[in-house]
Amino acid sequence: MPELPEVEIYRLYLESSSLHQPIENIEVDDPNLLTVPFTTLYETLVGRWFTGTRRIGKNLFVLTDGPDPLDQPVIVHMHFGMTGDLAYYHSSLDRPKYARIVFHFRNGFNLGFICPRKFERIGLIDDIPAYLKRKKIGKDGLAISLSELTEQIRRKKALIKPVLMDQSTVAGLGNWIVDEVLFQARVHPEKRTENLTDNEIRQLHDAIQLVLTTAIRHEAQYRDFTINFLIHVREWDDSPYDDVEAHKFCPRCGTRIAKSEVGGRTTYFCPNDQQL
DNA sequence: AGGAATGTTCTTAT
DNA sequence: TATAAGAACATTCC
């Protein structure tokens, strides 16, 4: 899933492949994937080129420049939903499946925005801070301080799992990362925020940093995480341990990992290490 | 009333 | 075919 670590990898990929090449054409299979009209996207971007990137949480912003000076900045916003990806390729023979939006560059290469499930979006904005405010997107998971996280959690009265999934609390955590963070911090996913101690919030903050930096270090290749991560009990695509009984138990205490639903999302946790 | 919490829906490959 | 997901939107709560 494209949560913060994956989007960071995509950002670096775009930076190293797609900058400073004028856009000659843009192909869009389904206009519903755009948050602006196709003609606006096309007329605004053709002739311009990408100059750099920014990432806040799961959001990727691509800065652009162009031949004619414009009054306002033109920034491409990308959100990868649950299955989004990027692919830079040359020959149309190499065009990946589900590359439903394609930027064709003057040098003959293409950047494909891959969206198998159509939960992904591309749009145009001119001001990143204004966009973040409008969408209520909080501090990035890698940048948030302990006091900022504490302040955010203290102002909410709900179960900790949905609170951490909420992008206004901290930006970039999705379903599996929140489970992993709660597991590493030994906090039950259904613990109410009112009942969290300052120390537990500190553990959550530490765990967020640990999980995010680990995932980025391994370029979001889950199989490379050490065995003390909960990720290995999940049934993600291509998991080498999928359905292997030996990996359905807590790597710390050996208790069978529980599977439930919290906040409408599938949740895994250790009933022994994470108690209410 | 109204902001916050909680629930539903969209979408489609596997 | 039942399932999974992020976020927008809808509804309920206090």
Q: Let me know the number of strands.
A: 10
**Do you know the CATH topology of the largest domain?**
N-terminal domain of MutM-like DNA repair proteins
Radius of gyration (Å):
20 Å
Number of domains: 2
Task: Describe the structure in brief.
By secondary structure, the chain is of the alpha+beta class. The protein contains seven helices and ten strands. It folds into two domains: 131 residues, MutM-like, N-terminal (N-terminal domain of MutM-like DNA repair proteins, Alpha-Beta Barrel); 124 residues, Helicase, Ruva Protein, domain 3.
Topology:
Blueprint: H1 4-17, E1 23-28, H2 38-45, E2 49-56, E3 59-65, E4 75-79, E5 85-89, E6 99-105, E7 110-114, E8 121-125, H3 128-134, H4 146-154, H5 160-165, H6 175-185, H7 198-217, E9 258-262, E10 265-269
Antiparallel strand pairs: 1-6, 2-3, 3-4, 4-8, 5-7, 6-7, 9-10
Helix pairs in contact: 1-7, 4-7, 6-7
The structure holds a DNA duplex (14 and 14 nucleotides).
